[in-house]
Amino acid sequence: MEPPDAPAQARGAPRLLLLAVLLAAHPDAQAEVRLSVPPLVEVMRGKSVILDCTPTGTHDHYMLEWFLTDRSGARPRLASAEMQGSELQVTMHDTRGRSPPYQLDSQGRLVLAEAQVGDERDYVCVVRAGAAGTAEATARLNVFAKPEATEVSPNKGTLSVMEDSAQEIATCNSRNGNPAPKITWYRNGQRLEVPVEMNPEGYMTSRTVREASGLLSLTSTLYLRLRKDDRDASFHCAAHYSLPEGRHGRLDSPTFHLTLHYPTEHVQFWVGSPSTPAGWVREGDTVQLLCRGDGSPSPEYTLFRLQDEQEEVLNVNLEGNLTLEGVTRGQSGTYGCRVEDYDAADDVQLSKTLELRVAYLDPLELSEGKVLSLPLNSSAVVNCSVHGLPTPALRWTKDSTPLGDGPMLSLSSITFDSNGTYVCEASLPTVPVLSRTQNFTLLVQGSPELKTAEIEPKADGSWREGDEVTLICSARGHPDPKLSWSQLGGSPAEPIPGRQGWVSSSLTLKVTSALSRDGISCEASNPHGNKRHVFHFGTVSPQTSQAGVAVMAVAVSVGLLLLVVAVFYCVRRKGGPCCRQRREKGAP
């Protein structure tokens, strides 16, 4: 029994057979051959590059060919490969003289070792697959080259700012790049937007040259109308170049400055160092007068001195400097500078003057000599005189202690404390580094002044025989006093450290009852008189050791006396127990 759908299957079989016959009769109905080729390939010069051409699908037999499209439009065949089974048979046809030559690898890819700028072409891959048809694809190869370091050649001449048109500033070169770089110009780091058409304010020109290597070099020249502000401006150029994958690079040139010619607009004239803030210079110093105009190149300077409204020319030079060696007070006065710039505007003041003020300070003079001797308790006035400019200030000091300002020093009721060195100092407040001093020594004549160190007894309030004591006498006067003692043994008089004019002497001795009665005297004397002091000791007690001996002697005497009395008493009482006992013991 037939299945229920058998009639339907019988009816469909002839239809399938008819479709098979139709497909066999029309080869175009088979799978069409297609190629996988990158449309654009980018590579750096000197690197190797591979151009891929891969048929899609499965084809047992096909022919692959590589063609080069040259500038004339012709398509010479470079290489071909035929697929036989699973192997590709490669044949090189025309290497076009390339070194290294073109190569085809085992997969039918075109290999270009060490890419050159001349390799920039359209490469066509053609695949013929028989019944599957023919396919064709084009790969464009771009070769990039980084240019050499950017060079700039500035104008070495002197450019005038008075020109009313643009002048050549510099030429910039970027060599051996691919594709051709672009050049931009900069002033003080800011890009200059200048046109390529001629313009009175500025423009630039460019020229591209293809070198023998096929690389491109670009030259750009900048033209600008200059201003005085450009005297300190820095200029440079930069080359911008392209790299694969849309990247970009930049190479900057070294910066440069221009030498400009512009007229003087301002003149300055001043006193160089050394000078004080108030403008004074010291007599004897070497002084420089400096004159500067702001024109370029440096103009000629005439330096002169005005005397009775007449110019006395002192120097003419291009530096604007006038040096005065060992300047004196007689060189004070009015000095001038004139800039000889004939391009300057009529309303520009090209001359300047200044007042040179020479400060001086003569040696000081005192109304007294180097040494002044005065009697004790007298008075005196010493004057200090000085000549200088500007007006000097005077001050008196003694041992660095200020005594007062002004030329006069008053000394009244002088004492020995007035002895010492007095200094008169003259200074110029507006010229701090200029000062002078003069001094004198005061010697006070008078009879000695005597001081003693008072002596005090020990803690119990009294002196004892044999106590040791040191007596000190101090004195001062002029001439220096002599110190003497009423007993021998005193030390020689010596100066006391830290007490000017004082001398002292000491005497060490033991206290006796005679000292208590008479005392010890110290005397200071010089040609003007003498002073005397007596040291008293009051009551002097005997020594502690002598009193103990006396008590002991009394005690021994009393003991002996009592012993004699006892013996006597015993003898008187012969019949007493005491004597009897002695007799009994004495009988054998």
TrEMBL record:
Q: Which residues form the Ig-like domain?
A: 27-142, 147-257, 274-355, 363-441, 448-541
Q: Name one GO molecular function term.
A: laminin receptor activity
Q: Has UniProt tagged this entry with the keyword Cytoplasm?
A: no
Keyword tags:
Cell adhesion, Cell membrane, Disulfide bond, Glycoprotein, Immunoglobulin domain, Membrane, Phosphoprotein, Receptor, Repeat, Signal, Transmembrane, Transmembrane helix
Signal peptide range in chain numbering: 1-31
The subcellular location is: Cell membrane
Sorted alphabetically, which Pfam families does this protein's record hold? C2-set_2, Ig_2, Ig_3, V-set
The primary location reported for this protein is membrane
Q: Which GO terms describe its cellular component?
A: cell surface; plasma membrane
> How does this protein sit in the membrane?
Single-pass type I membrane protein
Matching entries from InterPro entries are given as: CD80_C2-set, Ig-like_dom, Ig-like_dom_sf, Ig-like_fold, Ig_sub, Ig_sub2, Ig_V-set, Surface_Rcpt/Adhesion_Mol
- Transmembrane ranges, per UniProt, are 549-571
UniProt entry tagged with the keyword Membrane: yes
> Which ranges of the sequence are coiled-coil?
none
Q: How does it assemble?
A: Homodimer. Interacts with ITGA4:ITGB1. Interacts with spectrins SPTA1 and SPTB1.
Task: State what this protein does.
Answer: Transmembrane glycoprotein that functions as both a receptor and an adhesion molecule playing a crucial role in cell adhesion, motility, migration and invasion. Extracellular domain enables binding to extracellular matrix proteins, such as laminin, integrin and other ligands while its intracellular domain interacts with cytoskeletal proteins like hemoglobin, facilitating cell signal transduction. Serves as a receptor for laminin alpha-5/LAMA5 to promote cell adhesion.
Q: What is this protein called?
A: Basal cell adhesion molecule
- Annotated source species: Homo sapiens (Human)
Query: Lineage of this protein's species?
Result: Eukaryota, Metazoa, Chordata, Craniata, Vertebrata
